[in-house]
Amino acid sequence: MSKRTLSFRLICCFISGVLFLLSGGCAAEQRTQMQETQREEPRERRQETQREELEEEQQETQQEEQMDKTPEPKVTEVDWSAYFDGLNGAAVLYDPAASQYMLYNPELAQTRRSPCSTFKIISSMIALENEILVPEESTRKWSGEVFWNENWNQDIAFQEAFRVSCVWYFREIIDAMGPEMVQEGLELLKYGNCDISDWEGRLNTNNNNRAQTGFWIESSLAISPKEQVEVMERIFGKDSVCSEGTRHVLKEAMLVTEPERTAIPIYGKTGMGKMEGIMVDAWFTGFAESEEGNVYFCVYLGRTDDGNGSSAAAKEIAVRIVEDYCK
Hints:
Blueprint: H1 3-69, E1 74-77, H2 81-84, E2 89-95, E3 100-104, H3 106-109, H4 119-129, H5 158-163, H6 167-177, H7 179-189, H8 225-236, H9 244-254, E4 266-275, E5 278-290, E6 293-302, H10 311-325
Parallel strand pairs: 1-3
Antiparallel strand pairs: 2-3, 2-6, 4-5, 5-6
Helix pairs in contact: 4-6, 4-9
């Protein structure tokens, strides 16, 4: 091999080595750049997440500050004794437009008692929100057991069950939801003492038939008339905790049409509880739609010596108070 050929080959090898080193360096540089880019992307995502969290915190702070600036509703004691005509009871009316609570018999108005069948509003709301109750498919089959109320002795759908206050129907709905779902719903609504510990209703001394009792009937759950009004506002107010669809279904069930149509739309539910055969709790709670907005109310009747207290009487008193107020 000539010296010239050897020199040429050496030069070629040298150039190849340089090119190899250069290409390796570029690849390494590219890998480094990719690694840095990969490190940058999580950093950017973290920074974006932090910005979003900061914005959410600022919004929450602004909302809290706005709430703090909103004055508490005025509480006024009123004399509605003429409506009660000697009956032992209390009444609460809340008008958000006037930012005012009106209380008759304030001590009793803030005393917790068993909600009885007014709880059907709450159990219906929770069941509707969780699709346990679907109005179009709500018919439940009657077991054949004969109950004291003839309207209960049949297969029955939601609207009719609500209207006739069918206890066995809502006992089944509540059992279908289960304690966890019901408890969550009560805590969301801040419903009285939120106590469903007597799920079966064994504390009820007036009835031991499971189909006709539960924690909401003279048992562990308790709520005051004022709290009833607050819960109605949480369901049907501008900042409702439930969907528009649920509110619509409830309004259809709660509309007062008997014995005759009221001067303004009034929605509500009665409730009554007994102990040893004697009426001890009677209710009518709900809301009315006035020109200025919703007005929320609750009338409660306790045990009365002459025995004239009833949920029908509570309903009549409530309708008169609300209609007179909204004139």
